[in-house]
Amino acid sequence: MLPIIFILPLIQLVILSNAASFEVKNIRLSYLDHDRSAASRELISKFKASSYFNVSSEFQSKKEANLQMQKGNTDVILEIPIHFERNLIKQKNTNLSVSINAIDGAAAGVSNVYITQIISSFNQSIQTQLQTYNDGNATQPENIMTIPSFWYNKTLNYKTFMVPGILVLLVTMLSLFLSSMNIVREKEVGTLEQINVTPIKKHQFIIGKLFPFWVLGLVILTVGLVIAIVIFNVPILGNIFLIYGFTSIYLILILGIGLFISNHTETQQQAMFIAWFFTVIFILMSGLFTPIESMPTWAQNITYFNPIRYFVEVIRMVMLKGADFNEIKTKIGIIALYAFVINGFAVWSYKKTN
Amino acid sequence: MSISVQNISKSYKNIKAIDAVSFEVNPGELFGLIGPDGAGKTTIFRILTTLLITDEGTASVVDYDVVKDYKAIRNSVGYMPGKFSLYQDLTVEENLSFFATIFGTTIEENYELIKDIYIQIEPFKKRRAGALSGGMKQKLALCCALIHAPKVLFLDEPTTGVDPVSRKEFWQMLKRLQRKGITILVSTPYMDEASLCDRIALIQKGKVLKIDSPQAITANYEKVIYDIQSKNTHGLIHDLKNYPSHYSVYAFGEFIHYIDKNADFNLKDLEAYLENKNHSEIIIKKAITTIEDVFMDL
Fold first, then answer.
1. Domains defined for chain B, CATH in brackets
2. Separation CA B119–CA B102 (nearest Å)
3. Which of A1, A185, A186, A191 is most worth mutating to test chain B (most B CB atoms within 10 A of its CB)?
4. Cβ of residue A197 closer than 8 Å to a chain B Cβ
5. Predicted complex: ipTM over 0.85
6. A192: nearest CA in chain B?
7. pTM for this predicted structure
């Protein structure tokens, strides 16, 4: 059991951190060039130069292109209309048709952003060219350039923010599952009956049952942090003891939830199901995979009760931003209060006699 | 009184598990609760070991009330549930020292008490409890229940699922423990084990039917039982049930136990009746009354 507990989450960390990427690469782009001008060829070469696109083939007709889209052979169809270059020069205005396969809505959205970026940069350069071409001595074109600067993650490396998040999930899942199945297992096997007749005190038994998982959670965190640093080069700007301090309180909360589940179930299967119910909600509403800001208000309110949300925020703030105690103390307070309430309920509902 | 039970009742939802049960167990007594599955034996055990609270009535163990003084009771009784409930993934030795520790004692301190039993499982002390045979599990469970030198020992169906030789051994162990002054309350569905107790309570459907010593219970049974045997056992039961003055007929080992309604009934008439029904090799003789016979009649 012990090797399973250790090895599986770490394999998950390595695999998921590499796979759970929001970057969309290898977008298959096909085009229809009705203009066949210098401008249209330049636009296509811009796409060809981008590492995000695989410019596959040129279609002769819209019909054929649509067919290939239906077959799933292409993700994006770019259609350059006739007189593209002429309109661009004369009217300084033309249309382009872009069709994107939106079966995967998220990927389609990202593709759209990339396409828009490429087209607007093409637009800029062609306008500059045209201006200089039309009247060489005229005023310089007015261009507003936006240069984004990504704070705390300069290269916008998704691994930097995903790895701490996934580590949080693993620590949470492991300690919640193990603790919720633990006491219920004793119920199932019958050992609880024997224990209950002994003079052992309630708190002694509960601490005895949960303390190993608290330690285990911290050990998993440690190994995970080592992997984050060694394999993924995730920076730890803040004080590492802040992460440990937060995790210690956080684990008490999670173990309390596990104990609560254990008390109110009769079999490991029931406990497993309830633990799953909570983990799925906690994970999907944690802000790790979808930003909390884009959720509807009622869902945002629910996330205030989601412990993973706080842990994800804290671990990212400390590791990537170098937050100090003052910046996370509210969150520590919330988790500590939460832990106190949940454990109070759990211990209260645990009865030796029924 | 070591154990005193006054009119206790307990229901699970709408089902009455035990109904106004009363009995008393004297110090140093080996007291048996005898009854079929579902009679309410385990419920009585769970109430006396403070795991369950009664709906009505009071009970006390070594003069401690099961509700008010439950902590004191937990310190002074040993309980062996019907289902094997030690840690299967701990070894024999680890289980024993674990239970010694939570009772605040050590194996050495009370080794004398468990020595006889522990010696038999000692060769396997490094083996995991889950890998033991049924009889050895039973012995280990008994050791764990005894490790804190309890005043009262509760054994819920300790011999269910144990082979006949181990069962016999187990009862010998109980007798030895009794001589050391431990009060023992044991339940069993096996009627033959009833005669090994000092006193028994016959229980059925949550009610106590009779409390007395096994000898007195059988001696006070006024009806005469006959062992009847013939070549065709199945036909024999059928024919006996059609005999006009029959009171009860049931299979008992190799014989059929037959009880007549009339105290002065004539064996010759019955024999003639059976011969008339084409039975051969007929044997009819007086049987020794057993607890099972009494129980069948209740």
1. 3-219 (3.40.50.300), 225-297 (3.30.70)
2. 22
3. A191
4. yes
5. no
6. B85
7. 0.75
